[in-house]
């Protein structure tokens, strides 16, 4: 009896230790491997799906992964289902899953980070609860038509690139971004709705048809638009930002930032041939350069008191007047001063054409005299255009 008294607790402890070892780091090569951890409610480690996995994967009754969930190059993985999974503390990484069509995570709400790249068969997400907590989100080269199922309140970096079927992005709960928000190379008529976003770092947009940011108040970095398809940019609450860039937006007729007071960088507006009005009535301080070129007839600088860089304003519109600008603001500009009206070939401060009709290229340079604008332009340049090709080549190595 004494023997049983002491041996039973010891056996129980060893049983728990054994069970715990089965619920740690796991490599899944087939469904049998997944079934082997199906009784675990929590995985204390990483789940790695081997690139050789074939078919659909069911993660059973797992509720938490205290680590990562990843698959790189699993070209024969057709589906991943985790009906009970609520959280992934680390990265959720899927790259090069070229036949994947199903992502079903009905209860998933918290993820350390999302990193999905080259998922050409994924056109929707079966995320019933919706992901509300996440660090960075990088979604590159998928066939998603919307981001339904990602309902964030706060995000780090949000990079949505080369999703050519993505027609709408409505993240209505998003209030704050600690990293860059970047949209480029998606569906040409992509509509972006961020109705509750108030603060962030940099925001850059290319090839979109509409943008709704009614509550945006402050950015510490750049606000930039290239080659968009909307006619009016209206951000009524924005009071401060880093660089401001508008380049090659062929349908843009009006830029209205009525509350903007401080630009901690430069302002570059060029090659927006239909742009008629630039409304910055409360702009007070610009720590970089002002470089505005195009066919505009009205420019409102109602409160400008300081420009630390150069001032270059050139318009091909004969009704635009430089005299009022010169009398009111020239003494507030610390750099060089240039203002031209009725100029058939307005040019940016670095000598590039300020109109689309006079430009040999429709993309690229912002034409800014601010070094911070120029650098941000480089960072925002497309980098994922050949992502699928790299994955294909990688399989041959």
From TrEMBL:
Sequence segments annotated as region (Disordered): 336-371
Q: Which SUPFAM superfamilies match?
A: L domain-like
Q: Where is the signal peptide?
A: 1-19
Q: What biological processes does GO assign it?
A: fungal-type cell wall organization
* Compositionally biased region (Low complexity): 347-371
Xref: Pfam families: Ecm33
Q: Which UniProt keywords apply?
A: Cell wall, Glycoprotein, Secreted, Signal
**Where is this chain primarily localised?**
secreted
Gene Ontology CC entries for this record? cell surface; fungal-type cell wall; plasma membrane
Which locations, inside or outside the cell, does it occupy?
Secreted, Cell wall
- For this entry, the protein name equals Leucine rich repeat 5
What organism is recorded for this protein? Penicillium angulare
């Amino acid at each position: 009896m004494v023997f049983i008294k002491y041996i039973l607790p010891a056996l129980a402890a060893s049983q728990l230790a054994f069970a715990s070892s089965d619920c740690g780091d796991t490599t899944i090569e087939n469904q049998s491997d997944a079934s082997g951890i199906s009784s675990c409610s929590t995985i204390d480690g990483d789940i790695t799906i081997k690139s050789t996995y074939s078919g659909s994967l069911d993660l059973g009754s797992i509720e938490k992964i205290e680590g990562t969930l990843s698959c790189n190059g699993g070209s024969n993985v057709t589906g991943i289902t985790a009906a009970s999974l609520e959280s992934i503390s680390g990265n959720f990484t899927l790259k090069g899953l070229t036949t994947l069509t199903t992502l079903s995570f009905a209860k998933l709400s918290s993820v350390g980070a999302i990193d999905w790249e080259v998922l050409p068969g994924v056109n929707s997400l079966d995320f019933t609860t919706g992901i509300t907590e996440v660090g960075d989100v990088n979604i590159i080269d998928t066939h998603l038509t919307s981001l339904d199922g990602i309902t964030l309140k706060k995000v780090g970096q949000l990079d949505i690139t080369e999703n050519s079927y993505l027609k709408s992005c409505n993240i209505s709960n998003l209030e704050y971004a600690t990293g860059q928000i970047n949209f480029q190379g998606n569906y040409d008529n992509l509509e972006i709705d961020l109705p509750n976003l108030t603060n962030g770092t940099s925001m850059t947009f290319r090839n979109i048809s509409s943008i709704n940011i009614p509550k945006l108040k402050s950015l510490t970095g750049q606000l930039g638009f290239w080659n968009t398809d909307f006619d009016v940019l209206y951000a009524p609450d924005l009071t401060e930002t880093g660089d401001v860039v508008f380049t090659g937006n062929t349908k843009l007729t009006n830029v209205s930032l009525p509350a903007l007071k401080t630009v901690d960088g430069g302002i570059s507006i060029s090659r927006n041939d239909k742009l008629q009005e630039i409304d910055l009535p409360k702009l007070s301080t610009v720590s970089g350069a002002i470089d505005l070129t195009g066919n505009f007839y009205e420019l409102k600088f109602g409160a400008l008191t300081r420009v630390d860089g150069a001032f270059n304003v050139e318009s091909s519109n004969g009704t635009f007047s430089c005299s009022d600008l010169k009398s009111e603001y020239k003494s507030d500009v610390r750099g060089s001063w240039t203002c031209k009206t009725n100029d058939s070939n307005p040019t940016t401060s670095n000598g590039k054409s300020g109109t689309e009709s006079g430009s040999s290229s429709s993309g690229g340079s912002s034409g800014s005299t601010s070094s911070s604008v120029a650098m941000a332009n480089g960072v925002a340049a497309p980098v994922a255009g050949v992502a699928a090709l790299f994955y294909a080549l990688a399989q041959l190595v």
